[in-house]
Amino acid sequence: MERIQFAEEQIRRYSRHIILQDIGSTGVKKLIGSTIGIVGAGGLGCPVVQMLAAAGIGHLKIIDGDNVELSNLPRQPLHFTTDVGRKKVDSILEKIIALNSEIQVEIFPEYLTKANAIKFLQGCDYVVDASDNFATKFLINDVCIHLGIPFNIAGVVQWMGQILSVDPGKTTCYRCIFHTISSGDESMSCSAAGFINTVPSFAGILQANEAIKSIVGLHQKFTNGLFTFDLRENSFDFIPIKQNPECAACSHPEIPFYKTENYNVDLDQCNIQ
Description:
Blueprint: H1 8-13, H2 15-18, H3 24-32, E1 35-39, H4 45-55, E2 59-63, H5 88-99, E3 104-108, H6 117-121, E4 126-129, H7 134-147, E5 151-157, E6 160-166, H8 174-178, H9 190-193, H10 198-216, E7 225-230, E8 235-240
Parallel strand pairs: 1-2, 1-4, 2-3, 4-5
Antiparallel strand pairs: 5-6, 6-7, 7-8
Helix pairs in contact: 4-10
């Protein structure tokens, strides 16, 4: 049996993970050797990136074209008042380096599009959707299905949120559930409906947890249905949803469906975070 070697500082840093039966030294080695892509550096992205960096994910790729705004600060805790006006990826990189300088962090100050999605997502062992619009969520779903990359998608509004984890070719995908891109109800956008700052942090931590479980070989619990929560009522539910055998994305994953789909929806009209 191969003996796993860690530097003394790594043993001290990850000691609680190493002694955890479900993780152990083998799991920590997998985390250190993994690459995870995070799409979005805002309300969901901040807790996702913070938890994954702290867990020792060896290579994080973060893409987001937004700048930090004052209204972001209550729900995006890796951005500080002094960061207002900066690119979110620059701000988040600074905090992650301070948290764990051992890991590699790549930042992309742009939005995920059909033109750059393959370049960004290819090579990832796992992808976390922390975006704020339906078009990007569908794009992540369709490209990850085609590339065979496990991923999860979340959305939040007011006191509520929902999360779906996907193991391509084996479980229900985002398009199985929602079928086509829709601009949705403008009254339920972040700017119109708002949400309490604990909601995206709660969802983001669960997203990071699903990613960690996937990397170390544990079963993700939010597959084949939607995990939903309401933090106002402290209610939690899981809605089982069967895989659609005629799904445009996952019924024929070998076909690059994303090449023919139109993702050019007005992002402001479908913002839910």
